[in-house]
Design brief:
The protein has 342 residues and is of the alpha/beta class. The chain folds into two domains: 4-10 and 252-341, Aspartate Aminotransferase, domain 1, CATH 3.90.1150.10; 13-248, Type I PLP-dependent aspartate aminotransferase-like (Major domain) (Aspartate Aminotransferase, domain 2, 3-Layer(aba) Sandwich). 42% of the residues lie in helices and 16% in strands. It contains 14 helices and twelve strands. The strands form three sheets. It has a seven-stranded mixed sheet, with helices on both faces. A three-stranded antiparallel sheet has the order 9-12-11, with helices on one face. Strands 1-10 form a two-stranded parallel ribbon. The longest helix is centred in the C-terminal third of the chain and has 16 residues, at 326-341. The protein is globular, with a radius of gyration of 20 Å. The two termini are 21 Å apart. It binds ligand TLP. Residues 8, 10, 59-61, 64, 85, 89, 138, 142, 171, 173, 199, 201, 210 line the site of ligand TLP. Ligand TLP binds at residues 8, 10, 59-61, 64, 85, 89, 138, 142, 171, 173, 199, 201, 210.
């Protein structure tokens, strides 16, 4: 049976060109800093996001956790959005690995939240309170349906954070989706951050790998922590070669956004479910199933060849990507509608 896999953009497989580049990659021992392909990727990536330096890491999770570990000492607090990946999907790693406390904020990413981080969430000096050290933003915000934070919004957080002596880390797993959706340079967004993580392994199509970028001294320390966590990868040029090619796929992310809009449009108005078209800004579609449990719905569409993920008890997530075509999307929409109408 044909399968249309919309669980995540992480399911994208390396192209033939990537596999060839991987096979032919010039490699060395990256723990000694001697892998020319990794070095090239790190340099390209740092330039792309407008930072001094970058380090290649096995996953987005490791990139975010290295950032937290490097920015923070034990016992401090990190402000993040309640919907953020760092708070919900990283296995409490910030507490386990860095000994920090995450302080989740509702709607950190909109105007309302930007005001409240100042008023209520940055701790005043006190012998009883932890010190606030870092603000983590996420653009696009995955669990909100891939919504985009605009440069003006990021600027407000950045300026306020710096006024209070805090640093700003961006979980930019899908930052290029945000830049493409906003039709701006990625540096128009990353300039309002002290560090940024982005994933090569999602919509950009690399099989493995993410980047953490920031100031030179910050990346030097993060590199030490990468080794501490077992992320020193030796002849990683084989992976970096695919990562370099993945950087060519940035502009085509707009096609993934068109596919998401097409899916959302096809599903809008279907009985028994609701999709908020205005929130479909990038490559993620959230479908509110109202009464129907997400698990039951996923089994039904799965048995007809469409895969998606549960976002909550009654909400499912579809993620569009380069390995599904517009025809696949129309086919998936028909299957989903048939399941909802039965
Ligand atoms: N997200 C995955 C799942 O973990 C939910 C997905 O399918 O979307 N930040 C953000 C915003 C992410 O969406 C992800 C992965 C990560 C970090 C972590 O990246 P990896 O999976 O490489 O550790």
């Amino acid at each position: 049976m044909k399968v249309i896999d919309l669980r995540s953009d992480t399911v994208t497989k390396p192209s033939a060109a990537m596999r060839k580049a991987m096979m032919e990659a010039e490699v060395g021992d990256d723990v000694y800093g001697e892998d020319p392909t990794v070095n090239r990727l790190e340099q390209l990536a740092a330039e792309l996001v407008g930072k001094e330096a970058a380090v290649f890491v096995p996953s987005g999770t490791m990139g975010n956790q290295l950032a937290i570990m490097t920015h923070c000492e034990r016992g401090v607090e990190v402000i993040c959005d309640r919907k953020s990946h760092i708070f919900n999907y990283e296995m409490a790693a910030a507490s386990v690995l860095s000994g920090v406390q995450l302080h989740p904020v509702d709607d950190l990413h909109n105007e309302k939240g930007i005001g409240t981080i100042m008023g209520d969430f940055i701790r005043p000096p006190s012998p009883f309170l932890p010190r606030t050290r870092l603000v983590c933003l996420e653009n696009t915000l995955n669990a909100d349906g891939g919504t985009v934070m605009r440069p003006e919004q990021m600027a407000v957080v950045y300026r306020l954070a710096h006024e209070y002596g805090l640093q700003v880390h961006l979980d930019g797993a899908r930052i290029f989706n945000a830049a493409v959706a906003l039709d701006c340079e990625v540096t128009d967004l990353t300039c309002y951050t002290d560090s940024v993580m982005f994933c090569l392994s999602k919509g950009l199509g690399a099989p493995v790998g993410s980047i953490l970028a920031g100031e030179k001294t910050f990346i030097e320390q993060a590199r030490r922590y990468r080794k501490l966590l077992g992320g020193g990868m030796r002849q990683a040029g084989i992976l970096a070669a695919a990562g370099i090619l993945a950087l060519n796929n940035i502009s085509s992310l707009s096609e993934d956004h068109q596919k998401a809009r097409a899916l959302a449009a096809a599903l809008s108005g279907v009985p028994g479910a609701k999709v908020d078209l205005e929130k479909v800004e990038t490559n993620i579609v959230l479908l509110d199933l109202k009464e129907l449990p997400a698990r039951q719905f996923l089994e039904l569409i799965g048995s007809n060849g469409v895969l998606a993920g549960a976002q909550s008890c009654n909400t499912v997530r579809f993620v569009t990507h380069r390995d599904v075509t517009m025809d696949d999307i129309q086919e998936a929409a028909e299957i989903i509608k048939a399941v909802l109408c039965q």
